[in-house]
Amino acid sequence: MAEFPAVHHVALTVTDLESSARWYERLLDSKPVLDEEAGGFYHKVYALGGTLFGLHSHSATDASDRHSEFRPGLDHVSFGVANRAELEQWEKRLDELGISHGGIVDAHYGSGLSFRDPDNITLELFAPPS
């Protein structure tokens, strides 16, 4: 049997697509490569290296709902950086953008920097151990 394939894309459901898109475009410093109605939902998709990252809007989504990692489903999305020095640059970038975060946390398996999007979805930047 073939090796299990790498992740091709991740899509997050958001409560306010336009507001989330503005937030993510500032964070990613990128515009969507796809912005369309897709048969029952609307999505914006960003190219991040070889992976696609999408934001989805569904008419049935409760606009007052917020994500919780304590419910079944997504816990967090982690983006890899090359090393701790790059993670430190991202910490400064988050500060410049006014995005609150938990600071860099070091562990024997690497270092992480966690923060949340407008729907309370946890995002992380992660560097391998030095």
Provide an overview of this structure.
Helices cover 20% and strands 38% of the residues. The protein has 130 residues and is of the alpha/beta class. The strands form 2 sheets. The protein has a 4-stranded mixed β-sheet, with helices on one face. A hairpin with a 3-residue loop joins strand 2 and strand 3. The model has no long low-confidence stretch (mean pLDDT 96).
Give the gist of this structure.
The chain has 130 residues and is of the alpha/beta class. 20% of the residues lie in helices and 38% in strands. Strand 6 (101-107) and strand 7 form a beta hairpin.
What is the element layout, followed by pairings?
Layout: E1 9-13, H1 17-28, E2 34-37, E3 41-48, E4 51-58, E5 76-80, H2 84-97, E6 101-107, E7 110-116, E8 122-127
Parallel strand pairs: 1-4, 5-8
Antiparallel strand pairs: 2-3, 3-4, 6-7, 7-8
Strand content: 35-45%
Discrete helix count: 2
Largest beta-sheet details = 4 strands, mixed
Element string (H = helix, E = strand): EHEEEEHEEE
Mean pLDDT over the residues: 96
Rounded to the nearest angstrom, the radius of gyration is: 16 Å
Neighbour order of strands in the largest sheet: 1-4-3-2
Features:
130 residues, four-stranded mixed beta sheet, alpha/beta
